[in-house]
Specification:
By secondary structure, this protein is of the alpha/beta class. Helices cover 39% and strands 16% of the residues. The strands form 2 sheets. A 5-stranded mixed β-sheet has the order 6-5-4-1-7, with helices on both faces. It has a two-stranded antiparallel ribbon with strand order 2-3. The termini are far apart.
Length: 232
């Protein structure tokens, strides 16, 4: 047997008709119907630290004073992927958390100029519940995998802030830019979002946030003391 013969010889016969690929379970109606039933509704109270929402509101007001007429966009960032669909624990960008009080992977805060202040809206990825195939196929936002997943109204109530689906972010930024004399970003705003809206890199907002965050308010001081006490 030559080397070429060895390369072309197969240990298993080649079927006349190629085997069809097994269908994805999300495309099997009987399976999706089965996965939609029998689930209880968990407690979907958002994990917001006591006082964080009110503190974030004051922080936004402090920031707003420095950027009248400017649209402000601040991203939370996303958790890095460790292995395929396994994610590291998510830690939001510090500027984003200071302004929102929320720990939400992929969220973006948009502050639209309104008179001498700003109106803020938080855009977050949609959670997926039983009845939606992504409930069990989406490892990042399917409730089967991530556990209790608050919806938009849950977050809005907990944060005292309008909350909308991330799919509406482009429209929200476009409206903000229309009402503004300029647009500034900070945190981890997705690069594709900036590219779609022609938003360039600008360090002014991040620098101002760094200065503002140096001066701790009463809520922040209490949080620091609590952290020290827990590790004492």
């Amino acid at each position: 047997m030559t080397a070429n013969d060895a390369l072309t010889t197969r240990s298993m016969p080649t079927p006349v008709v190629a085997d069809e690929r097994m269908p994805r379970l999300a495309n099997v109606p009987a399976f999706t119907d089965y996965m939609a039933t029998g689930w209880g509704t968990p407690d979907r109270t958002p994990p917001v630290v006591a006082g964080a929402a009110a503190a974030a509101g004051h922080h936004r007001a402090r920031l707003s004073e420095h950027f009248p007429g400017q649209a402000l966009v601040v991203g939370a960032g996303t958790a890095p992927v460790r292995a395929n669909d396994t994610y590291y624990d998510f830690r939001p960008d510090s500027d984003f958390y200071w302004l929102s009080g929320a720990v939400i992977d992929g969220a973006v805060l948009v502050m639209v100029p309104s008179g001498s202040s700003h109106d803020a809206t938080l855009y977050i990825p949609a959670p997926f519940y039983p009845g939606d195939p992504q409930f069990f196929t989406n490892a990042a936002h399917g409730e089967m995998w991530v556990g209790s997943a608050p919806d938009f109204s849950d977050w809005a109530e907990a944060l005292a802030l309008p909350v909308k689906p991330l799919t509406e972010l482009d429209a929200g930024i476009a409206a903000a830019m229309h009402a503004a004399t300029g647009t500034l970003t900070a945190g981890k705003v997705p690069t594709d979002v900036c590219a779609r809206h022609g938003i360039g890199s600008e360090t002014g907002l991040g620098q101002r946030l760094a200065v503002l965050r140096m001066i701790k308010d009463d809520w922040e001081i209490a949080q620091l003391r609590e952290a020290v006490d827990q590790h004492d």
